[in-house]
Amino acid sequence: MKLARRGLLIILSSPSGAGKSTLSKRVLEDDPGVVFSISATTRSPRPGEVDGREYFFKTREEFQALVKSGGMLEHAEVFGNFYGTPLAPVEQAIASGRDVLFDVDWQGGQQIRNSKLAEAVVSVFVLPPSMAELEARLKRRGQDSAEVVKNRMAQSRAEISHWAEYDYVLVNDDVDKAEVNLRAIVQAERLKRARITGLNGFVQGLNEEYEAMQ
Amino acid sequence: MKLARRGLLIILSSPSGAGKSTLSKRVLEDDPGVVFSISATTRSPRPGEVDGREYFFKTREEFQALVKSGGMLEHAEVFGNFYGTPLAPVEQAIASGRDVLFDVDWQGGQQIRNSKLAEAVVSVFVLPPSMAELEARLKRRGQDSAEVVKNRMAQSRAEISHWAEYDYVLVNDDVDKAEVNLRAIVQAERLKRARITGLNGFVQGLNEEYEAMQ
């Protein structure tokens, strides 16, 4: 039985290398009820990037107008470019009972958690099993110099310091287990009484059915 | 990776016939982390009942002394006999990270939710898909007269009126699906940051590991 419900804003944060991207990709593939939040950015599209698929590409003026009018759920400036989450598509998605997954850092998470959609938020922090394992994963990517890996590790440590702001914490020592756990969190949150908007009507229906039986 | 955590008090309530007993039996069989709460009672043991297995059998004096000293998590009088949940075994179980399942009505649920173990409580209400289906299940048991079924239906309606006091609500139209959902709730609640007592130490370990790498 499918009762109407409000969708979730699933915030997934972790230090880089802890497996957050793999986890979100898997949940998006395996759970058709979850959609990915597409960010807006002022940086130029790279070859192959499509507006509305990788990003919504905006001019600085468009972007700042959205921020001013309260049309951005969260935003930040990174190396001179703006990145952010337009509010409207997220509101539409959750109104129709779809869940929106956000792959954001602690600052993005904090802004979403303090937005007007706060009640719909479920936040999950993914920890690595050890710093040695985190470093090994960063090195295995093989694209980055020792200096870049060192910087990422320092960033990772700073990101980890925000673990206690999240509702749920996963230690990702096995990505299969981590996915099962993340999906259990999503499924359980869908079953929270306060999120199932169709429950009032459903129980009223039971009462009317009972009366009619008398 | 297994971090230390505080166990849960899982309150499962539903009108009789909605499938609560089947559900709790299944979860107890399939999830070794969950144990059943054994009640105390002042009624006499029936043939085959063993003290400490079906019930803790107590005299009225013993029972009332426990209530007076705050040693009962919840209790009620039913047809002149007392029934209740001794606090000590529950506290021991959750301190060692086991989850305790309670098959109680809304009154028991309310007392446990307002007890000193409130923070460990997860409450789940199971609804029938329809009152016709509920009546059919009660009749299928075949043991009860039409009058008894009628009374049970009236009790069921009263029980259902308390659905909104619960954290989660399941509509049991398919017991396999309902079990999957109940187990997802239990698993997700285990992953709540605030319940994992080992997390502080674990993150401190990551920090120390990071420092040692510098």
Kindly list the characteristics that best describe this protein:
five-stranded parallel β-sheet; alpha/beta; globular; 214 residues; four-stranded mixed β-sheet; Rossmann fold; 9 strands; homodimer
CATH superfamily of chain A: P-loop containing nucleotide triphosphate hydrolases
Largest pleated sheet of chain A: 5 strands, parallel
| Count of domains of chain A | 1
CATH topology of chain A: Rossmann fold
Give the count of helical stretches of chain A.
8
Overall 3D shape of chain A: globular
CATH architecture of chain A: 3-Layer(aba) Sandwich
| Helix coverage percent of chain A | 40-55%
> Which two protein chains have the largest interface (Cβ within 8 Å of the partner's Cβ), and how many residues from each?
A-B, 41 and 41 residues
Distance between the termini of chain A: 26 Å
Specify Rg of chain A, calculated over alpha carbons: 20 Å
What does this structure look like?
2 copies of one chain form a homodimer. With 214 residues, chain A is of the alpha/beta class. The first copy, chain A, has one domain: 3-Layer(aba) Sandwich (Rossmann fold), CATH 3.40.50.300. Helix content of chain A is 43%, strand content 20%. In chain A, strands 2-7-1-8-9 form a 5-stranded parallel β-sheet, with helices on both faces. In chain A, strand 5 and strand 6 form a beta hairpin. In chain A, helix 5 packs across helix 6. The longest helix of chain A has 16 residues. The two termini of chain A are 26 Å apart. At the A-B interface, helix 5, helix 6, strand 9, helix 7 and helix 8 of A face helix 5, helix 6, strand 9, helix 7 and helix 8 of B.
